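Listing 4. Sequential folding, example run.
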Amino acid sequence: MAVFAGVLRSARTAAGLTQVALAERSGIARPNIAAYEHGRREPLFDTAMTLLDAAEAHVAIEPTIDWTWTDDSRPYAVPSRLWRLSAAECLRRFDPGLHLWWSGPRREFDLALRSDRLRAYELVLREGTPSDIEAIVDGILLCEAWPDLKLPRPLRTAWNALIAEQREPTDLVAAS
């Protein structure tokens, strides 16, 4: 499914709207909405914004995350910035798969449990690809967990600046 298809469907259902109701609010024909939601068509930007506005969805555009790798004997992926996940994404059950959990009995982590989340974060930060890391690590939860994570020194060093940047009080908070 195309990315916009899931976003549109989620926004519409969160607003409690049917496709017909969204069509009436947006002025966009219901068959087009159905095609967008099923990923058969991608709307133009203006059309997408009209649909999301009619569904009372907030749109945030964030810069892409650029990844680099440490130069250590064991390289670790390091992002250019931290990101946020939805509550459903960051508190879901996580199966690391064989590429991350290759020995021992099969394991699933409940990311809603802090102890499981710490273990899963340790695993993906050490062994994961950028897409693995982006899929389960939430920036705020990572900052909260940072002091308690058991990580190799080069990995911790590589990520420390990102964590410190997020933990710094902003000028707005300092002024109040």
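-- end of first protein; second protein begins --
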Amino acid sequence: MIKTALRYLVVAILLGAVAVALLQTARLERRIARADQEMATLNLSRAARAYDEVADSLAVIGRLPWLLRGTRDEVAVRQAAVRYWRGDYAPLVAEHTSADSPSIAGNLDLQFVVANADYRSVQRPDSNRELALGTLDHAIGVYRRLLEGNEAHREAAFNYELLVRLRNRIAAGDEVPAFRRPTVPGNQGDNPEEAEMEDVQIYVPSDSVIDPRETEDPTIGTGTRIRKRG
């Protein structure tokens, strides 16, 4: 009888501990979601404070590296992303690449943000050809090192190929593009020179199953009246 009661007591304590852990995890996820909302609405200062508060909460369990490891990695990436979009390039790189910095080898997304910041930190406005080529060589090396152990990282591979092509064009004699600081919603594009509306080609998507060139149905890709079927 006593053994049964003790067994039920132990089970109850374990279930209570699990319930508390799940409750705390849910609260933590809500705080991260609120920080993500601030980030999505471009309130970078509020997002930075929110992520810092979450990171401080996670630091309490820092001695248990296996507990909420994925969450800690995600928060670290978001903290770095906020600093990147605020233009805090050089300090961000220094913080994660100095000799006494904690290893980021297991956090591929954080490596990518730091690589992007490293590239931006060496850019200069109104670069001449030699400086631009040196900047691109440095950035290409950063992405190459990231890809050496992570060949499947598509974003890094895209940036690497983009910069290699850009470098080749500049080395071949093309004008040096104006390096602009990136913004979260993207940089404003330029209107095409001497563009006329009749020169603009508009492609209308159609059913991928039916090729309009192989059907006599006039309702696909044309402006004729839709025939009533049935």
